[in-house]
Amino acid sequence: MIVGGAVAGASTAHALASLGVSSVLLERAESFPELNRGDVLQPLSLGLLDNWGVLPSIEAMGGYEVVASGFFHREHGFLGEWGFTDLDTAHPHQTVLRHTNLHRALYAAFAGRTDLVSVRRGARVASPLYDDTGEVLRGVTGTIAGEPFEAVGQVVVAADGAASALRRAAGIGFEERHTYAHEYLMPICPRPAVPELDHRTMRYVGAEGLTMIIPLDGGTEVRVPFQIPVAEESRWRALSAPELWKRMVARAPVLESAPGPVRGGWHSYRIHLRHAERYVRGRLCLVGEAAHVIPPTVAQGMSLAMLDADVLAAVIRRGLDGGGVERELELYDRLRRPANELALAASHEQTLAQAATGPAVDEHVLSDYAWLADPRRCREVAERVAGLANTTAEQLGILDVPGGTHP
């Protein structure tokens, strides 16, 4: 039973179904909301989606391939780029797709799996259900269209986000590792007609912080997350569209060639680094942001959520085959939590480096980004961002000896 049907929950249902394990997926939203976050799928994630049979739906929704990321400075111009095309992987690129369309693709791919995945949208969870001891969580109660329901499972998966009610009900701590002084505004505008954005993302670094330009919708538009101090959010929100556009062009001069200002509304994105003290308690397992919240600087959030789903599904399959699901669940905690710990630390380091502000950033930008001229360093960054340093369930050999002792 999976509570929360966004990327982490839907991915868990797909991973389980690919191994012949059935699930009930409970999602509060009745429709697919427009969220200004989580647009970038990394190469490792694409491989998992391919294994689960979801990739054709991603492509049908208009996923846009990105092969490299370039760094720029408003005065010094192009600093260099790193890319994916030389990596040893089946999908040597990122794929960019609006978050709401990624949701649609995940659900469209359920069409052929109705025997294994039971989707319940509009499910409002009210309270947890426990076993006879009153200690082991075994399900939830709630309502769908005003009608009460009760849902139980051999395993309960909390995919209900950073404010996870199930995590809190289980008494699992959620540590705030770092409080960042900046956030991102996330406007969308027409794509500048420049070759630098041809299947590429752009990052402007400088004294005012990081500005990213991410192609959307087949490259016809771009999302422009740019850094502002948390304390100044209300002042930025008070700007008119022309004033905001002028500030954006000053931060990222390439936008000057875009045919027009910001389109529609725009949103803010607060930055956090959080980690659950454990991923498993009894039958309850945490995946995605219920387990960890990571800064978006190198776009690792969805990658980690999909790896959680991949490993958890294999652990559950292993437990079913060996006759003891609950006994095996601790293996998920032992395998995923330390791996995610490393990913959180690396993302934090990159966030501090790329989001640095002040005159010293402009003064030292050429030396600080000289590594972009080193092919070895560029490849290391590409491999880390692609997720090739992470380990899938298949690579871990979880199902090699079902029910046996894992190293």
Compute the gyration radius: what is it?
22 Å
Please state how the strands of the largest beta sheet are arranged side by side. 8-2-1-12-21-20
Structure summary, number of beta strands? 22
Total number of distinct structural domains: 1
What structural class is derived from the secondary structure elements?
alpha+beta
InterPro entries: FAD-bd, FAD-dep_Monooxygenase_BioMet, FAD/NAD-bd_sf
Pfam families: FAD_binding_3
Domain FAD-binding: 1-344
Keywords: Monooxygenase, Oxidoreductase
Describe the structure.
InterPro entries: FAD-bd (IPR002938), FAD-dep_Monooxygenase_BioMet (IPR050493), FAD/NAD-bd_sf (IPR036188). Pfam families: FAD_binding_3. This is FAD-binding domain-containing protein. It comes from Amycolatopsis minnesotensis. Residues 1-344 form the FAD-binding domain. The protein is of the alpha+beta class and 407 residues long. It has a single domain (2-178, 270-394), classed as 3-Layer(bba) Sandwich (FAD/NAD(P)-binding domain), CATH 3.50.50. The protein is built from twelve helices and 22 strands. It has helices spanning 7-18, 43-51, 55-60, 99-108, 165-169, 233-237, 241-251, 301-322, 325-354, 359-368, 375-386, 393-396, and strands at 2-3, 23-27, 40-41, 64-66, 68-73, 77-83, 94-96, 117-121, 123-130, 137-144, 147-152, 156-158, 174-185, 188-190, 200-204, 211-216, 221-223, 226-229, 268-276, 280-281, 284-286, 292-293. The strands form five sheets. A six-stranded mixed sheet has the order 8-2-1-12-21-20. A six-stranded mixed sheet has the order 6-5-15-16-17-14. Helix 1 (7-18) runs parallel beside helix 4 (99-108) and helix 8 (301-322) runs antiparallel to helix 9 (325-354). The radius of gyration is 22 Å and the shape is globular. The two termini are 28 Å apart.
